[in-house]
Amino acid sequence: MTKRRLVYFDFVTHYGGAQRSTVTLLKALTSRFDVHVVDAYGVSQEYTRALLAQDVDVTVLQPGAGVCYIGANGQGMKRVLNLVRQLPALWHLGRRLRDRVDALQPDILLTNSYKALALLYASGIYSRSRVAFYARGWYRRSQVPLLARYLIKRCHCILAVSPATAQALLQWRVPRHRIHVAPTVMDMDHVMAQGALALADPPPHMDRSKRIVVPAQLVPTKGQHTALEAAHLLKQRGHDFVMWLCGDVKMGVAPGYRRRLANMIGEYGLQDHCYLLGQRQDLPALVSRADVLVLPTHTEGFPRTVWEAMLLGCPVVATPVGGIVDLVTDGKTGLLFGLDDEVALAAAIERVFTDGPLARELTTNARAFVLERYGPAEAQRQVEMALCAAC
Predict the structure, then answer these.
(1) How many helices (H) does the chain have, and how many strands (E)?
(2) Domain 189-373 belongs to what topology?
(3) Angstrom distance (rounded) from CA 48 to CA 167
(4) DSSP label at residue 282
(5) Which fold is adopted by the domain 4-186+375-390?
(6) How many CB atoms are located within 10 Å of the residue 336 CB?
(7) pLDDT mean for each 10 residues of the chain (391 residues)
């Protein structure tokens, strides 16, 4: 039987959790689809290499492009000016995208990027192709630009990474019949193998008995400032710990938040406790050696890092937002605390540090839960059913 053809298009600027999940998903979909990836600029060589290693075809439209992002998030006028300056380059990019799509003749186009949707629309591809959008975040209406909401509503299929994401989409009137809950497809064996690897670049203070990992992009909505406030409290209470903050500043995002975190480390005298490690490609290996994973985020779709920690036997302490509540039941598969509540976060970390039976119970329950509920075969089946129905 001839496979249906799927084209995945995106603007990838770094190889983080969402991109690792995309590689796993596209590899899994090759069993049902003829999969082709189109990347705008080829900025992330790690992403390209990972796809090619899985025998997934990749086309880069404009390798070596001078400007790969609009930037100036939160600065409306500056962002508009940046966009206007880039319009000629984006026009050429759209033409190349249209030519590539015309050559491939896909049955379905898939993306998880607002910017990708906008270019598909502006280049006329929307009107003659079936488009699917993978909603990986947990969206308040204010987080999604008006144009993006309009384009998502026009998609033939919307994959929601969690029930919370699906509910958020419904609240801004995305048609219910187009929404399909489809959790991230994970390769459990690969995650376990990565977790068992030796650390080629060990972070500071691996010898500490209390090790905390905070994995997320460095943006205010991920809440690393709350983690540092909690670290300050833990230090005052005499705990000998290390906190590794793993994540980078995404291309096009101002580095002000990273500077804020670095200043907090200095102001609180945490230089011997808290470290900004940048992006770590060996995150599973680091998580498997940590005593607790902390995610103080304000918004989340379906957090890969939480899922991995639960599989790898690392206790999770997180905020009850978005898809986190689909994974973490407070006191059973992890511990939850309120947004920006450093006192509650410090108390939850202390519980894990000081109550060995509780920590073991949390990790045992969490691993059993993800193995039962979020196996890759079922997640893959849900994605395939939704995409096939949209073709």
Answers:
(1) 15, 13
(2) Rossmann fold (3.40.50)
(3) 33
(4) T
(5) Rossmann fold (3.40.50)
(6) 18
(7) 91 84 93 95 91 94 71 57 68 92 96 91 91 85 80 93 90 90 88 94 94 95 97 97 93 83 97 95 95 95 92 97 94 97 98 96 96 85 91 85
